[in-house]
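seq:
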Amino acid sequence: MSSIILDKRLQTAGDMVRPGKRVVDIGTDHAYLPIYLIENKICPSVIACDIAEGPLGSAVHNIDAYQMTDYIAVRQSDGLQSVKETEAEDIVIAGMGGELIASILHAAPWTKNPSYHLILQPMSMADYLRKFLLSQGFSIEKEKAVTVGKHVYTVLSVYYSGEQKDCGLFYSVVGEIRKDKSEDGAAYLKKCAGRILKIANGLKQGGKPEEAKIYYELYHDITEGKDAAV
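struct:
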């Protein structure tokens, strides 16, 4: 079998996994990430979870093909519901909306422990996810932007600190991406700025000048390079 090659999105998530830690991969789909992690000896074991039977069938097939059944366990699970808190240290939740990721974490309060490392990759609603994380006492250690085709996403490295914070509008939109000086980081900020400008113009046209002003100022802050303090 040829070595697994991940797309940029999953590769970035895989690069954030701490070497030697046991991993659970939520929304594993074809189990490409678990196979990659074992194949490259990054971690000793992975629990590959998905809620749907179809992706799990593909995962089992691929794991068998790569002869990794001793290292990768496959489970049908709604989020983390079928995972015990003693079974992994690094938790990857990728390829779904930010609101769904937040609901998965909310349903697993045992993740509120600094020993766990969360690697989160929202396909949408990253601003919602950032607000949720900070309100629940999680800290975003870093973010990395990734471009896949015409889309640009963020991958978050998160730990529980216990310090609950109110997430301002600016931070909810850009998070820690300001520190990502790559071309992908610039592309992510450009996407954010475009979305905010569209909202501002819509509010202005809708006869809400005061609300529009807030978003025009936010657009200016993003394009002028303001630091995203929480």
